[in-house]
Design goal:
alpha+beta, elongated
């Protein structure tokens, strides 16, 4: 799903994204909740950094951590429309 998400963000003009901060809370030995504060740049918004938060539920039972659920902290579609990224 990460590949599909990357394709979508690229299709709306995202040129870069970076983690500005991250807080992890262990739920158990196998799971944690990670709140990430992102900063992203889009072609239509120029050099204005668009900041947003997403919380991920991460499973750590295999060789690589796996995001099994995420929660956006705002209405992503509404925010993108307000920025002119979606019609």
């Amino acid at each position: 799903m990460a590949g599909e998400a990357a394709k979508f963000y690229k299709s709306v003009g995202q040129t870069s994204a970076k983690i500005l901060s991250m807080d992890e809370i262990a739920i158990s030995g196998e799971y944690s909740m990670v709140k990430v504060h992102w900063g992203a740049l889009f072609a239509k918004t120029g050099k204005k950094l668009i900041e947003f938060d997403v919380t991920y539920l991460v499973q750590k039972t295999g060789p690589e951590p796996k995001i099994i659920m995420f929660i956006a902290h705002q209405d992503e579609e509404k925010a993108m429309k307000e920025l002119g990224l979606l019609e």
